Amino acid sequence: MLSAGMSQVFSRARAFAAACADALLPPACLSCGTPIARAHDLCARCWSDLRFIEPPFCPITGRPLAYEGEELKTPDAFLHDPPWNTLRAAVAYEGPARDLVRRLKFHDRHDPAAFIARCLHRAGQALITPETLIVPVPLHPWRLLRRRYNQSAEIARHLARLSSGIYRPDLLRRHRHTRPQTGLDGKARRRNVRRAFSVPEKKAPVLLGRHVVLIDDVLTTGATAAACCRALLKAGAGRVDVLVFALAGRSEPLHI
Ligand SMILES: [Zn+2]
Fold first, then answer.
1. Is there a contact between 84 and 226 (Cβ–Cβ < 8 Å)?
2. Rounded to the nearest whole angstrom, what is the distance from the C-alpha of residue 230 to the centroid of ligand 1?
3. Which residue ranges make up each domain of the chain?
4. Which of 26, 204, 239, 253 fits 76 for a cystine, CB–CB 3.0-4.6 Å?
5. How remote is the CA of residue 95 from the centroid of ligand 1, in Å?
């Protein structure tokens, strides 16, 4: 099993290797590969294709709203009782946002993490105070071993550097190996991650009454985020907000 400490050592070594590669290669757009002036960024065209989720948006589902108003929410926010306090998403999961997540998740590329963290900081900095614990959605140790890093932890680590929050990847663990959520419908996603997460017993005192911001790369039906929030609240967290980079399935209802 790869411990959180070992995972951090690997992450830093890989970040160092990437920095060395950057010094040798000209900077390129993180999405399309076009040469650009600044490393870890997008070209002008990909920037303009990135769809930021700006107000008005639902504070519960993070989905854009047609009209602004204090009490306005999307219909599924009324149908469910999400365990999180607020959910905020930076962009829609399409175009360059999809490329960035795929590169980070499946193509063994670390460099999108810093860019994604900048987007999360822009979208969710109001949620984070110096007391906030920044907790990434964990991978199961077997998947962590295969992928060698947790993409959500990489994003959370960069976000903690940009914000005043405290990076704590050790507070939540995935103790059940679940199949990937991709390709499952809403109900199956919820079943797949039910009771998959927990807080290690000796870590529970750290969480007692604390504010947590849960970090993930993509949110589709909210099943994974909800399972994580429930585990954090059960262990004693005072309040959990969810901050995700990209919102997928904009017409898909929550299944939490
Ligand atoms: Zn580009």
1. yes
2. 38
3. 53-247
4. 253
5. 10
What's the CA-to-centroid distance between 33 and ligand 1, angstroms? 6
CA 45 to centroid of ligand 1, rounded, Å = 6
Name 195's Cβ contacts closer than 8 Å, sequence gap at least 6.
Answer: 176, 227
Is 129:209 a contact under the CB 8 Å cutoff? no
Say how many Å lie between the CA of residue 131 and the centre of ligand 1: 37
Q: Please, which residues bridge with residue 134 across strands?
A: 167, 213
Cα of 43 from ligand 1 centre, angstroms: 4
10-residue mean pLDDT series, the chain (256 residues): 58 64 78 91 95 90 77 68 93 95 83 94 96 96 82 96 96 81 68 83 96 96 93 97 90 62
- 218 C-alpha to center of ligand 1: Å? 20
| Short-list 120, 121, 109, 147, CA closest to 29 | 109
